[in-house]
Each structure stands twice: as C-alpha cells, then as structure tokens.
Amino acid sequence: MWEVHDGMGWWMILGSVWFVIFWGALIWLVLTLVNRAGAGGRPPEDSLLEILQRRYARGEISKEEFDRMRQDLG
Questions:
Q1: How crowded is residue 52: how many other Cβ atoms within 10 Å of its Cβ?
Q2: What is residue 7's predicted lDDT score, i.e. its pLDDT?
Q3: Distance of CA 35 to CAs 24, 43, 44, 65, Å?
Q4: Domain residues of the chain, as ranges?
Q5: How do residues 40-62 score in pLDDT, each as one tens digit?
Q6: Radius of gyration (Cα) for the chain, nearest Å?
Q7: Three-state SS across 6-68?
C-alpha cells in the first residue's frame, strides 16, 4: 500500500529546518520587543557637564565649585 522508507526523508529535514527558523525568529522578536520597551521607558542620560550646568543654574553649587568640577571633568 504505502511505501515505507528507512531513515529520514527530505520532508523531515525540511521540517527540522523550519522548526529551528520558527523558534529562532520567535526568540529574536521577543528580545527585540523587550529591548525596545526597556529603552523607551526611560529618558536618555544627560552628560555630566549638562548635570553640572543645571546644578549651577539652580544655585546648588557656587561658581568656584562649578569651575573646579568642570576642570575635573576635563
């Protein structure tokens, strides 16, 4: 009635390849979405000089402290 072959046929190899491609794509998609959600949830980091300028503008540090810290940052 039906032919019986020993071993794997081409359809089993093709099915295995599709299985690997499917799970690889699914894992890649999940990681991409997680990374985008993590990066989009927080504002970009300010540079140290910008933070120092804001502190000086708010009056948290004096002119001398500002100049010394700016030189330290180089």
A1: 19
A2: 62
A3: 16, 14, 14, 39
A4: 45-74
A5: 656 666 788 889 999 999 999 99
A6: 30
A7: CCCCHHHHHHHHHHHHHHHHHHHHHHHHHHHHHHHCCCCCCCHHHHHHHHHHHCCCCHHHHHH
Place of tokens 């000089």: 49
Q: Could you count the other beta carbons within 10 Å of the beta carbon of residue 19?
A: 10
The CA-CA-CA angle for residues 18, 7, 20, to 5°, reads 15
**pTM of the entire predicted model:** 0.44
DSSP 8-state code for residue 70: H
* Residues belonging to the chain: 74
Q: How far apart are CA 57 and CA 54, in angstroms?
A: 5
Q: What span, in angstroms and rounded, lies between the C-alpha atoms of 67 and 74?
A: 11
Write out the two tokens for 18: 């599709």
